[in-house]
Design goal:
Layout lengths: L1 E3 L26 E2 L10 E7 L6 H11 L5 E7 L5 H9 L5 E6 L8 H12 L4 E4 L8 H14 L3 E2 L16 H8 L16
Parallel strand pairs: 3-4, 3-6, 4-5
Antiparallel strand pairs: 1-6, 1-7, 2-5
Helix pairs in contact: 1-2
Length: 198
């Protein structure tokens, strides 16, 4: 999902819940991991992470290839219990795009994924905020195309979907993820989603 940030709700807005997602703690501040700061990025890419240590390095490589250096910032909001934090920190060194990190300790993880997205959006400095998963199910190349379309057509909101155009429900999903996201627990007619017999 990509959306424009309203000028009246920039990162100085203190209304609503804090960046921790709890509303009662002081906001967690992002840390700049690679000193490639820009005065005003056009695009902020918000990536919530939870135990994504295997995906972060290839994700950063691909993001660095498709997003403009100096016009983009990447904001990881990390809720991990594995080595994701370490891998983000090391990978950021070689990324040509500015990488910032908001680390949410267990006590500040209220709201789960949506809380992480809100925390990242609150720290976004770009005119546009792009939210994408760290698991590479959202290809960075497609995310970059969404960002270009949003800017070109001056849209307020752009949402990528595998159901549009020539896409199919299975595009972008594989293996167990396909099975998990396609199951309907209320369905008990002996058929898989899509009408195929089990």
């Amino acid at each position: 999902m990509l959306f424009s940030t309203p000028a009246e709700n920039g990162n100085g807005d203190s209304s609503g819940p804090s960046s921790t997602g709890s509303g009662s703690q002081a906001p967690l501040q992002p840390v700049d991991l690679n000193s490639r700061a820009t005065s005003q990025p056009t695009l902020s890419v918000v990536i919530p992470t939870r135990n994504e240590e295997r995906n972060v390095e290839p994700l950063l490589d691909r993001l660095g290839e498709v997003f403009a250096e100096g016009r983009t910032e990447i904001i990881f909001v990390d809720d991990s219990d594995d080595r994701t934090l370490e891998v983000i920190t090391v990978g950021a060194r070689d990324c040509p795009v500015q990488v910032r990190l908001v680390r949410r300790p267990p006590s500040a993880r209220k709201g789960g994924l949506s809380g992480a997205v809100v925390a990242g959006a609150r720290h976004a400095r770009g005119d546009w905020v792009l939210v994408m998963d760290a698991d590479l199910q959202h290809p960075p190349e497609t995310a970059a195309a969404l960002a270009r379309a949003a800017v070109r057509y001056d849209c307020d909101l752009v949402i990528g979907t595998r159901y549009a155009g020539d896409g199919a429900s299975a595009d972008g999903l594989d293996g167990s993820r396909r099975a998990l996201t396609s199951q309907d627990p209320a369905r008990d007619d002996g058929q898989e989603p899509g009408g195929q017999a089990r």
